[in-house]
Amino acid sequence: MFEKHLFPPGKRAYIDKKRFSKNNESCILCSIIKKEKDVITLLLDETKNFVVTVNLYPYNPGHIMIFPKRHITKYQELTEEEVVELFRLQKRCMKILDKVYSPGGYNTGFNLGRAAGASIDHIHLHIVPRFKNELGFVDILAGSKIMVETPYEILEKLRPEFEYEK
Ligand SMILES: [Zn+2]
């Protein structure tokens, strides 16, 4: 039921929702990590323990996410090493977003658990650039926001900055 509210219209254009139900075996983020052929990955970068991708359903231009390669469903399961790696990577991502998009600000963080609105159990950190004069989050949730940039356009702009070789 949360999924209905958390993604802009057009979700079905990218993935078959039924394939990625609630069990770990069909976790979409694990599928991205495994580079499964029929999954659109939108990969930007990869470190020892994490992956950076463009969000499949960007709320805003430059919306990306970082997630661990391990299927972790609780933030508390991250090791000390992973915590440090994650926040270093977040900083790097934001420097690149600053350069490419020059946003006025950011919303960045996790939705942890279904009760908090997480639609995917595998933890993932959102980095959402915010711009002056854009529509508010309520407009996004109401589905009235127009997607001003597709995930592929975001990928094209950001990938050269990450210099990630697929
Ligand atoms: Zn997973």
From TrEMBL:
**Which residues are substrate-binding?**
N55, H126
Regions that span the bilayer:
none
Q: Name one Pfam family in it.
A: HIT
Which sites are catalytic? H124
Query: GO molecular function, one example?
Result: nucleotide binding
Q: Can the keyword Hydrolase be found in this entry's annotation?
A: yes
Location of the motif Histidine triad motif: 122-126
Q: What are the record keywords, sorted?
A: Hydrolase, Nucleotide-binding
HIT domain location, by residue?
28-137
Name assigned to this protein: Histidine triad (HIT) protein
Task: Tell me which species this is from.
Answer: Muiribacterium halophilum
